[in-house]
Amino acid sequence: MVVPRLIERKRDGGTLTPEEWRELIGAYVAGLVPDYQLAALAMAVFFRGMSEEELGALTQAMLHSGARLDFGTWATPRVDKHSIGGVGDKTSLLLAPMLACCGVAVPMISGRGLGHTGGTLDKLEAIPGFRTGLSLDEATRQVQRLGCVMLGQTAELVPADRKLYALRDVTGTVESIPLISASIMSKKLAEDLRGLVLDIKTGSGAFLTEPAQSLRLAETMIGIGEAQGCRTVALLTAMDRPLGYACGNALEVEEAIHGLTGDGPEDLMEVTYALGVEMLLVGRVFQDRHAARRRLEASVGSGAAREKFAALIEAQGGNPSVVDDPRGLPHAPVQEVYRAPRAGVVTQVAPRLIGHAIIALGGGRLRTDDNIDPAVGFVVTAKPGQWVEAGQPIATVHARSVADGHIGLNALAASIQIGESAVATPLISHRVSRDGVESMSR
Ligand code: URA
């Protein structure tokens, strides 16, 4: 295998054989192919795409680059959900404990922040002591004992995605349907699942901004999942505004805890419940979506999901007292309030600008080896369509210094637009399954 020839072939619109993909990914994980060659190949895929055969081969090569979770004859159905990435999207932090209270188990393998979007692992690591790098054995035992685990790709588990994901994050090669599909599906198929729900973000703050691209991504991933016997369903959800109020790692953990206590922002809870219902349906523990929703609401209302989150944190080395007292989470020393510059209707809260600003404040990465500050970010309470008065506080910047606070205020001024009227986009627009596409907008 001569890697420069493979890169050139892909660059020129050709295809690599399944054997070439297998060999290449194996050599990359073994450290025999340098990052710069994989980055060049990823860029060639970004521009040239992949054939169906290539995508299948890449996904399989990534899936088999390490070991997989294997629950043997354990009867409890395993389900999971994965988002393609958004700003303020903390639904995973709510769903893993909620679902673990509803008769299914959630062995969730997640990623770090990618591009301008946040990552579940970075959010969890904002909790003092929390470990996301569990061994296969630890993860398996925890799922069987507690009903959920939240971990990252490791040297044991989908190591190819661990390396490629970090590389794509900093080389402008995230927004590619085949690369996103192989990345997500290799992680999810390593979890020994009965069912998977995909949250396909769509809109200006998503990796894929056009609904048609989002639908194509959904169909591509559903095809991969179903071919492997994993019932796979996708919801297309809005990412033309942040989800919930909090954007930034520790701030999002705090908001997720509010959600588990029953007082999360309405849009966050709506998307969380909708995804949770689909998870119970693909797990085949409920046939009726109203009954599934009631079960999920009961997990929150009874306090069981909140307790489960505390148990999950404790099991993974974190300090569970943050669930009762969020002062145990990291806090930024500077907070600057942003006020509406005029009266009117909020016409836009651009998530991409907020995501990039979090990176500028130190809460995300520009290089694979960057350390991040978990405390920084934004709380944006303004939502498109809302009327605001001039001078009304509508957002807060959490920053390390006064100078960073001003960077944050400028980002808010660019992100939040106020005008005369707003066009409402549906929070959940489509449901996609092997049976086709259903419009959910009412
Ligand atoms: N989430 C992933 O796990 N991988 C991607 O490529 C994008 C989102």
Task: Describe what you observe in this structure.
The chain is α+β, with helices and mostly antiparallel strands. The protein has three domains: 3-49, Transferase, Pyrimidine Nucleoside Phosphorylase, Chain A, domain 3; 79-325 and 427-439, Nucleoside phosphorylase/phosphoribosyltransferase catalytic domain (Pyrimidine Nucleoside Phosphorylase, Chain A, domain 2), CATH 3.40.1030; 331-419, Alpha-Beta Complex (Aldehyde Oxidoreductase, domain 3), CATH 3.90.1170. 43% of the residues lie in helices and 16% in strands. It is built from 16 helices and 14 strands. The protein has helices at 3-11, 18-29, 35-48, 52-63, 91-100, 120-124, 136-146, 159-169, 177-189, 211-227, 249-260, 266-282, 289-301, 304-315, 351-360, 402-415; strands at 79-83, 106-110, 148-152, 195-202, 231-238, 246-247, 334-339, 344-349, 377-380, 387-388, 393-399, 416-419, 428-433, 436-439. It has a five-stranded mixed beta sheet, sandwiched between helices. Strand 13 (428-433) and strand 14 form a beta hairpin. Helix 1 (3-11) runs parallel beside helix 3 (35-48), helix 4 runs parallel beside helix 9 and helix 15 (351-360) runs antiparallel to helix 16. The longest helix has 17 residues, at 211-227. It is globular. The mean pLDDT is 96. Bound molecules: uracil. Uracil binds at residues 84-85, 111, 114, 165, 174, 179-180, 183-184, 187.
